[in-house]
Amino acid sequence: MTRHPHFSETLDDGRLLCTLCPRACKLAEGQRGLCFVRQRQGQTIDLTTNGRSSGFVIDPIEKKPLNHFLPGTPVLSFGTAGCNLSCKFCQNWDMSKSREMDILQSPATPDAIAQAANDHGCRSVAFTYNDPIIFYEYAVNTAIACHQVGIKTVAVTAGYISDQARPGFFEHMDAANIDLKGFSERFYHDLCAGSLQPVLDTLEYLVHETRVWVEITTLLIPGENDSTAEIEAMTSWITNKLGTSVPLHFSAFHPDHRLTQLPPTSHHSLKQARQIALSNGIEHVYLGNVHDIKNSATYCPQCDKLLIARTGYSLSEWHIEGQGVCEYCGSGISGVFEGQPGDWGNRYQRIKV
To answer: pTM of the entire structure?
Structure first.
C-alpha cells in the first residue's frame, strides 16, 4: 500500500498541527480534529475510518453532478463519516456530521472496491457524500487500485484542502466536482465555518496545473448567496481565472439541517443565475435539483444546437461525435467523451463490496 505523508507538524507546546486542510487543527494526544475522523495517536494523526464506508451505490455520473465526463455511464459511489466544514445547509449531515462510528457498516479494501466497480460495469468510482479530502489515504489508495483495473476516479469535494496536500490528492483523480458554496468570505465564515480563498486556490490549481476534468456546483440559498451582484462576481471570476469551458451547475436549495427556516430556491432565481453566467461567457450552465429539461441539456457554444438532452439523469438525445465534436458544426466540446454514451439512465443500485 502507498505510503502517505503524515500531514502534521509538531508545535512548541507539544501539540500536533494537522496540515491536511486550512482548518489547521492543533491536537493533543487522543484529540480529534473538527472533521472528527482524524485523531492524534502518538506522534501521528491517523485516519480512524480507513477501510470503512457508509455504503456503496451505483448511480449515474450525472448525479455527481458531472455532465461532461463519460456521460450516461454508471459510477460506484461511496463516502465515510465526518467533514472539515460545518455547513448549516448540509444535505448529507447525517453522515458528514456523524459522531457514531457504527453507522459505517461496509468495511472494504481499495482492491475490493475497484474489483466491485469492474464487476458491475462501472466506468468510474466516486468519493462523495462526505468530503474525500478528510479520508485522503483511503481515497488515494482506492484511486490507485481503480486505475490498475482501468477504472477512472471522481472526487466530489468542497476543495477545502491545504497547499501541501493538494497535489498528492488530485494526482490520483480523473475528474472533480468542486462545490463552490458561495462567493464571499462572509458566507463561508457564517454558514460553513470556513474560508473562500482556499477553494478558489484549489480551482485555479486544478484547471491550470492538472489534467483533472473539473465542473463546479453552487447551491443557491435564498438571501444568502443568490444576489445578482454575487452571481455576477462569481461567474466573472470563473471566466477570468478558469476560462469559459468549465461547466457550472446551479442547484436548488431545499430547507435542511440548520436552515429549515428558509424557503426553497425559486425556479426564477435559478434561471436568472444561469442567464448571468451565460452572459459572462460560461459555455455550459446547468440547473439541478429541479425538473427543467431545457436547462439541464447541453448545447453547442458555437452553433447553439442541442447536443445532449436529459430527462432526469437519463440521456434522451446525443449529437456529439468521437471524443467531443459537435455533430452539426464540428466545433470541439470540452469534456471527457468516449464515442457513444452510456445507457445507465436513472437507475440507483445499492451493492455490497
So the answer is: 0.95
